[in-house]
C-alpha cells in the first residue's frame, strides 16, 4: 500500500551523471581513479559504460580528444582534483587549440573551503584555472542541475568551432540524493548538438566567382575538413572542379594520397605559384607560414604573396587573422561544400592545363626521386628505409590508424607514409606537441576496434610510454614502432665538457621493446627493414600489443626536423 510517509525512490549524483551521459549516447569514459571519482568509475562500469583507466591523466585527456576528433562526439575524461586536474589540463588546452571536442570532468573540493582558502585535501580553484584554456567551463553544485551542466558541456564542445570544455563536479555532488523520477525529468537529451550552419548564398557566389577567375587555383584541406565528416561532398568538389589540392597532415587520406589531383609532392611549387587559394577547415597559422613570406612567393618574410584567398570555416572570426581573405565563407564544411557543388553548376571548366601540367611534371620528378631514396637499403637502417616498410604496411591496411609524433620521426613519416582513408592520421597537431602518442593510440583502438600503428620518435614515445601497460591491460591492437636514434633529433650530440651526456642524448641502444614485454605484450628489436617488416606483419596479423624497437642510424636526423629555422640561434644568424 502506498502512503504519503513512504520514502520516494531515490537516485544520486553518481547515477545522474551516468544517466545524463548515456542519454546523450556517450558510452566511453577515459579516466584515472582516486578521490572523489573512484566510486563514480566503479558505478559507471557496473552501469555498462566502457571505462578506460590510464596511468597518467594527460593521456586519458588526449584519448578523449582523439575520440572526439574521430567520432565528432565529445570525448570524456574524468580526473581527480588539483594534481589530477592539472595533469589533464595539457590535453584540454591541446584539444581546444586543435578544435577537437572533449570534456574534461574533474572532481573538486567543497566550494566553501576553496573560496575561503581553508586548506582542503587537493584544494584548488579549478574552474578559474581551466577557463582560459578551454572553450567553456561550468560547475554543477546541485544534483538537480547535472542534466543542464552536461547538456551545456556537450553543446559547447561540439557546436560551432569544436573545442575543449571543463566541467567541475565538487565531491559532495556525487552523493547528493534526489527523487528518482524528478532526477530523470531533470536530464536533457541534447537535440542537434552541432547544428548545420548554412553559408550565405552571396558569400558562396563571391567565392565561386573568384575560383572561376583563377588561372592557378589550389585547395588546401585541413583537419577541420576531415573532422566535418563531409567526405563524399569534398571528394565530389575536388574531382568536379579539377583543382589540385594539398592536405594538411591530419587531412591526409580525406582523399587517398595517391589521388592524381594531390599536389603534396609539389608542395613548395604550388604554394608559391597559386593565384587563388581556397582554405577548407585549415587556418593560415604557422603551419602555413601565416600566408606570408617565401613559402607564398612573396619578397619579404613579413609580406603577403600575390594570392587571393577563399576561406571556408565555421568560425566567423578566423578570416583575416593573418592576411586578407577575399572571399570568406562561413558555415559548416558539409553545407558549404555542398553549396559550392551546386553553385559551380554543370558547365564548370577545369583549371588551365599549363597549371596542372606543370604540377604533374614536378610531382613526377619528386616522386621518382623519393622512390629511388626509399628503395635504397643502407647498411644501417635510416628513417627512409624503415618508413618504406611502414608505408607498405599502411598501404596494405588502409583502415589502420596511424599515430605519429617526434621531430624527424614525424616529418619523414608525414611525407613518406601515404594515407588512404579519412581521419586515419592522428598526430602532434597545431602545437607540434609531444606526448599525444599512447593516448591517441588507445582512443583509436578503443573507439574503432581497428589496428593502430604508432610511429614514435624515441623521445616522443617517452612522454606517454608508461601507457604500454594500459595497452596490454586492455589487449588493444596497437603496434608501436619506436624510431630509436638514441636521442632528441639525433643521438650524436656531444657535451663539450665531456662530463655528462648532452641534453639531447639518451642511453644508447635502449631496449624499448622490453618495456612492452614487461606487461605481457610482444617486444621486438628490428635492425633492418626485413626484421621490421616481419615484426609489423606479425603484429597486424595477431593484433597483439607490440612494440618494435627500430634501430635507426643515430646521425640520420636533423636538428628540430623541418623546423630548424624556428630555433632562436638560427633566427639570430638570419
Ligand atoms: P590544420 O592544422 O589541418 O591546418 P586547423 O586546425 O588549423 O587545421 O584548422 C581547422 C579549422 O577547421 C578551424 O579553423 C575550425 O574552425 C574549422 N572547423 C572545424 N570543424 C569545422 C566544421 N565542421 N565546419 C567548418 N569548419 C570547421
Ligand atoms: C610537450 C620539443 C619537439 S620534437 C621533440 C621534442 C622534445 C622530440 C624529438 O625527438 P624524437 O624524434 O621524438 O626522438 P627524432 O626522430 O627527431 O629523433 N615538449 C613538448 N612538446 C614539444 N614539442 C617539445 C617538448 C620537442
Ligand atoms: Mg629520436
UniProtKB/TrEMBL annotation:
Keywords: Lyase, Magnesium, Metal-binding, Thiamine pyrophosphate. Its cofactor is thiamine diphosphate. The keyword Glycosyltransferase does not apply. Its EC number is 4.1.1.8. It comes from the Bacteria. SUPFAM superfamilies: DHS-like NAD/FAD-binding domain, Thiamin diphosphate-binding fold (THDP-binding). It is an enzyme of class 4 (lyase). Residues 416-549 form the Thiamine pyrophosphate enzyme TPP-binding domain. This is Oxalyl-CoA decarboxylase. The gene is oxc.
Amino acid at each position: 500500500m502506498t502512503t504519503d510517509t513512504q520514502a520516494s525512490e531515490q537516485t544520486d549524483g553518481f547515477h545522474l551523471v551516468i544517466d545524463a551521459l548515456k542519454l546523450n549516447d556517450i558510452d566511453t569514459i577515459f579516466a584515472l581513479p582516486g578521490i572523489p571519482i573512484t566510486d563514480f568509475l566503479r558505478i559507471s562500469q557496473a552501469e555498462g559504460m566502457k571505462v578506460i583507466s590510464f596511468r597518467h591523466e594527460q593521456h586519458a585527456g588526449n584519448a578523449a580528444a582523439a575520440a572526439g576528433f574521430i567520432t565528432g562526439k565529445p570525448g570524456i575524461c574524468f580526473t581527480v582534483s588539483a594534481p589530477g586536474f592539472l595533469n589533464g589540463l595539457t590535453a584540454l588546452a591541446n584539444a581546444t587549440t586543435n578544435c577537437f571536442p572533449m570534456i574534461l570532468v574533474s572532481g573538486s573540493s567543497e566550494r566553501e573551503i576553496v573560496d575561503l582558502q581553508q586548506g582542503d585535501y587537493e584544494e584548488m580553484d579549478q574552474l578559474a584555472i581551466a577557463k582560459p584554456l578551454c572553450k567553456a567551463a561550468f560547475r554543477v553544485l546541485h544534483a538537480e542541475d547535472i542534466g543542464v551542466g552536461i547538456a551545456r558541456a556537450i553543446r559547447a564542445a561540439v557546436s560551432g568551432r569544436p573545442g575543449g570544455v571543463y566541467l567541475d563536479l565538487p565531491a559532495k555532488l556525487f552523493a547528493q540524493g534526489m527523487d528518482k523520477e524528478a532526477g530523470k525529468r531533470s536530464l536533457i537529451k541534447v537535440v542537434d548538438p552541432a547544428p548545420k550552419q548554412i553559408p550565405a548564398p552571396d558569400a558562396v557566389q563571391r567565392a565561386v566567382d573568384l575560383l572561376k577567375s583563377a588561372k592557378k587555383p589550389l585547395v588546401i584541406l585541413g583537419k577541420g575538413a576531415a573532422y566535418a565528416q563531409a567526405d563524399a561532398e569534398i571528394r565530389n568538389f575536388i574531382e568536379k572542379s579539377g583543382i589540385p589540392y594539398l592536405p594538411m597532415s591530419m587531412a591526409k587520406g580525406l582523399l587517398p594520397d595517391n589521388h592524381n589531383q594531390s599536389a603534396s609532392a609539389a608542395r613548395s611549387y604550388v604554394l608559391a605559384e597559386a593565384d587563388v587559394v581556397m582554405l577548407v577547415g585549415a587556418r593560415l597559422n604557422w603551419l602555413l607560414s601565416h600566408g606570408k613570406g617565401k613559402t607564398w612567393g612573396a619578397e619579404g618574410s613579413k609580406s603577403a604573396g600575390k594570392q587571393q584567398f577563399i576561406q571556408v570555416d565555421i568560425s566567423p572570426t578566423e578570416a583575416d587573422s593573418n592576411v586578407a581573405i577575399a572571399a570568406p565563407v562561413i558555415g559548416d564544411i558539409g553545407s558549404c561544400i555542398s553549396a559550392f557543388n551546386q553553385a559551380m553548376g554543370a558547365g564548370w571548366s577545369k583549371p588551365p592545363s599549363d597549371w596542372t601540367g606543370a604540377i604533374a611534371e614536378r610531382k613526377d620528378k619528386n616522386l621518382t626521386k623519393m622512390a629511388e631514396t626509399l628503395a635504397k637499403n643502407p647498411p644501417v637502417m635510416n628513417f627512409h628505409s624503415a618508413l618504406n616498410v611502414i608505408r607498405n604496411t599502411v598501404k596494405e591496411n588502409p583502415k589502420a590508424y596511424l599515430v605519429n609524433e617526434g621531430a624527424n620521426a614525424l616529418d619523414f613519416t608525414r611525407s613518406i607514409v601515404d594515407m588512404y582513408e579519412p581521419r586515419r592520421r592522428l598526430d602532434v597537431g597545431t602545437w607540434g606537441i609531444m606526448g599525444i602518442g599512447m593516448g591517441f593510440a588507445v582512443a583509436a583502438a578503443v573507439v574503432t576496434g581497428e589496428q593502430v600503428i604508432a610511429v614514435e620518435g624515441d623521445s616522443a614515445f617517452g612522454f606517454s610510454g608508461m601507457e604500454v601497460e594500459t595497452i596490454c591491460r586492455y589487449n588493444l591492437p596497437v603496434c608501436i614502432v619506436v624510431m630509436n636514434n638514441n636521442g632528441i633529433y639525433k643521438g650524436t650530440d656531444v657535451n663539450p665538457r665531456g662530463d655528462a651526456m648532452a641534453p639531447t642524448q639518451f642511453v644508447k641502444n635502449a631496449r624499448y621493446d622490453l618495456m612492452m614485454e614487461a606487461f605481457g605484450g610482444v617486444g621486438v628489436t628490428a635492425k633492418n627493414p626485413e626484421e621490421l617488416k616481419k615484426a609489423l606483419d606479425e603484429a597486424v596479423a595477431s593484433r597483439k600489443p607490440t612494440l618494435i624497437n627500430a634501430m635507426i642510424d643515430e646521425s640520420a636526423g636533423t636538428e628540430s626536423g623541418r623546423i630548424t629555422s624556428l630555433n632562436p640561434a638560427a633566427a639570430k644568424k638570419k
